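User: I'm curious whether this sequence folds into something compact or stays loose and floppy. Could you predict its structure so I can see for myself?
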Amino acid sequence: QVQLVESGGGLVQAGGSLRLSCAASGRSFSNYVMAWFRQAPGKEREFVGRIMWSGGSTAYADSVRGRFTISRDIAKNTVYLQMNSLNPEDTGVYSCTCGVHGSGYTYWGQGTQVTVST
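Assistant: Here's the prediction. I'll summarize afterward.
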């Protein structure tokens, strides 16, 4: 059973930084894509970025490119989302997800709240 557990959310002032973690367990993720999504109040869930577990290639949404960085620690089975230069529009529940490459996202974490104040 795959489990994804996020941590690291909280309240931060505009311009600040946060690092989210996603601890993954339950199987080998060698052919998986790991991703972060977020959902702001009253809005649809949106893609933030993703990383290939093997090779580590990344891709980002235009709204976060250059400010957010996704990385993974294979030994710890953990994916990170480093968020810099945060602004209030980044507020939302951030969720970690994963799935077999090319097959969509199958497993989801419970999410962690990020609130950016002015």
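Summary: Residues 32 and 50 are 10 Å apart (CA to CA). The chain has a mean pLDDT of 97.
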